[in-house]
């Protein structure tokens, strides 16, 4: 399918892989235990361009293409999936700004992140009563002169615990029934507060939290795109972000496979390695095939995006297959570890917990199947 890497793509992946191995992997287990937001590491990754990777050089970003970005996410996720999802959420927000921001917004918000002078951006759409059904959001914004006043609550917001700038969505009834508008909100805005940081099963240091808006006044200059066009703004970045989550899933799965393969070769049972038993060998063979199949779908989707071809079903296929493959691979690799795999002393246990949410966020597996079906049926 023509997946040879350019020098630039290879260099980006190597840079991110080196950072992941040297800076992320050593403390990943401790960060998982403490659930502490890795602010210093996020700043280091931002300095490498990791928080706005696809931002063009005109906006002082690295100008990475979708394939290079996906490979970077996969490399980071192998070491620490929590940092990888902070990276994905920031890049999603940066992509929205790159496609819709005014020159003033670029100077104040996008370019400082692209230059690595600010940390991660955070994306705020989900609410307590609006997950897969994004149209059900209840956060509202009403205009008052040259200001918008925002009230409501967001939930499950990745990276919120350490973010300074949020790209959020609110209902704006004056623009029409069901109309939604995208806004930039700064963390020090009066009336804005960080709510509960979620005590999650996995991705424990990703700083996932609630956001509370109590009469937050946002200047009209912080409206992203057109008033009432928030869904269009969000949907424009959704397919590339699903490809990134596919890459994150592959990073977790590849690390799990690496651990399982090594353990099966080293662990002795009944006088021989676990890998000597046919069942173990078949598991390894099947999981390697499944991983490569998922890789091909992810790479195809990234290539299509880089060729300027609009994708919907292909992005959902990549996300669906990679996330579900991730779950199967991690489960099978834990099984190869036997009882040891159930212990927090072994890395595979953390990967097992991190892997579960891949089938939930950025569109559940059920939503992905629906998108694929609609694409096939033309509706």
From TrEMBL:
Keywords: Branched-chain amino acid catabolism, FAD, Flavoprotein, Oxidoreductase. Residues 122-216 form the Acyl-CoA oxidase/dehydrogenase middle domain. One of its GO terms (biological process) is branched-chain amino acid catabolic process. This is Acyl-CoA dehydrogenase. GO terms for molecular function: acyl-CoA dehydrogenase activity; flavin adenine dinucleotide binding. Pathway: Amino-acid degradation; L-valine degradation. Its cofactor is FAD. Belongs to the acyl-CoA dehydrogenase family.
